Amino acid sequence: MSLDRLSVMGGAYNDTDADSARVRFRRALALTLMTFVMPGSAQLVMGNKRLGRIAIRVWLGVIAVVVLTLLIGLVSRTSLFSVMTSSFLMSTLRLLMMAGAIFWVGLLLDAWRLGAPLELRRGHRLTMTGLNAGLCCVTAGVLFFGAHILSVQNNFIGAVFAAETVSQPHDGRYNVLLLGGDSGKDRDGLRPDSLTVASIDQETGRTVLIGLPRNLQDIPFPEGSVMQKEWPNGFNCDTCELNAINTWANDHADLFGTKNPGIGATKGAIEEVTGLKINYYALVNMQGFSKLVDAVGGVTINVKERTAIGGIGSPIRGYIEAGEQQLTGDRTLWYSRSRVQNDDFSRMGRQKCVMNAMLQQLSPQKVLLNVEKIADSSKALLSTDIPAQDLDVFMDLALKARGEKVSTVSLVPPVIYTGNPDFKKIRRLVGGAIGKSDGTTTKSGGLMAAELKPVRSPAESDKDPREANAADDLSKVC
């Protein structure tokens, strides 16, 4: 007969009964908490000792792996990222986490049984049942959520970073072509209206953003390439501008016999224009970019000038006012692409400020908390030839770049006239900007920094997005 029933019959607990009840409750509580802190310890003390020893060995092994992983991260962050992006390891860890969740919950339930719940007072029994159920939910929830995150990450890497060719840095730098474009019913193919080369130092992450106007004309092509044979005097028809190369090559794909001839032709053209060897490209669909910004909760931008929303083939439907603004994905997209009431070169400057803001504000913590949203948006956002094998390198460089100045050089008027560009001067500008970033020169290809942008008063400069097109420290300008 239980103590609760004796109480109902009018019996009274004596001090011994009360002490015994408290002892039983503390024992049940201890067994449950021991299992939560060190799975298998309750079984080792009161239950199946063989099961307890197995569970403790597994738990100590998990701790050893975690400590080893942290040590690897301290010694080589790139090696840690390599482990984190390995498809095999992620798949294996996902299965182990799911199995671990089930095993741990089983141990918690067994610990509840070992606590002899039927011998506890009613209040103690309810407390222990609720506590055990809560710990089971927390344990299983955390491990199953972790397994889900690994599955999302693995699928994302497999879908987006499916290329297999690894490119080595050139002259100590990775040069990545960043393309931004829209494809839609009103578009003839996908036109990359934003073209930027990110030249990244392989050791420090120090980055130079090289902006190329979409309307650059008379583009030369590498000797012996398909485009050079078709356009021996450069890309020189009435509508032949830099952003049209992608569409022309895709429309004449039979001449190339390769996958993505438009991207390949654009990369070759930009190599010829800048003198840089392009390692990889990343093509950003602007609508997907809007979803990415929303996935991380928006981005804070110092808006230099009142910027129109809409107006490109449609009425203006609003404005982004000047000043510091927390922008949604749609408003960030319009801030990046709007050229109503200003020009392409203002837009190029705003795009660089958005890139810098994303680099500085997209912290590892924010990525972790929004990993599923980011992965879903990025599948619609990004196509690239960066292989999964190089992800560890670029993850490490991204973290390094956050602590470094980002400098810019843009091939825009009055320094470069897009209708009649001086390509030798372009190469000098690019080489000088990279040399200055590396600390090997103090000028940009023989041109002082002041020559790269018009002279304006401080008040004018603070309101002009075009200042971001030629900056030694993009954060200060933006």
In summary, what is this structure?
This protein has helices at 3-8, 15-37, 41-46, 49-75, 77-84, 87-114, 122-160, 226-230, 245-251, 261-274, 286-295, 329-337, 344-361, 364-369, 371-381, 391-402, 423-438, 458-462, 474-477; strands at 173-182, 191-201, 207-212, 280-285, 299-303, 307-310, 316-320, 323-327, 382-384, 406-410, 470-471.
> Can you tell me the CATH class of the largest domain?
Alpha Beta
Helix count equals 19
Rg over C-alpha atoms, rounded to the nearest angstrom: 31 Å
User: How many discrete structural domains?
Assistant: 2
Largest sheet: 7 strands, mixed
Share of helix, binned: 40-55%
Q: Are there runs of 5+ residues with pLDDT below 50, and where?
A: 1-13, 444-455
Describe the structure.
The chain has two domains: 3-160, no CATH class; 173-477, LCP protein (Aminopeptidase), CATH 3.40.630. It has 478 residues and is α+β, with helices and mostly antiparallel strands. It has helices spanning 3-8, 15-37, 41-46, 49-75, 77-84, 87-114, 122-160, 226-230, 245-251, 261-274, 286-295, 329-337, 344-361, 364-369, 371-381, 391-402, 423-438, 458-462, 474-477; strands spanning 173-182, 191-201, 207-212, 280-285, 299-303, 307-310, 316-320, 323-327, 382-384, 406-410, 470-471. Helix content is 53%, strand content 13%. It is elongated, with a radius of gyration of 31 Å. The termini are far apart. Residues 1-13 and 444-455 have low confidence and may be disordered. The protein is built from 19 helices and eleven strands. Strands 9-4-1-2-3-10-11 form a seven-stranded mixed sheet, sandwiched between helices. A two-stranded antiparallel sheet has the order 5-8. It has a two-stranded antiparallel sheet with strand order 6-7.
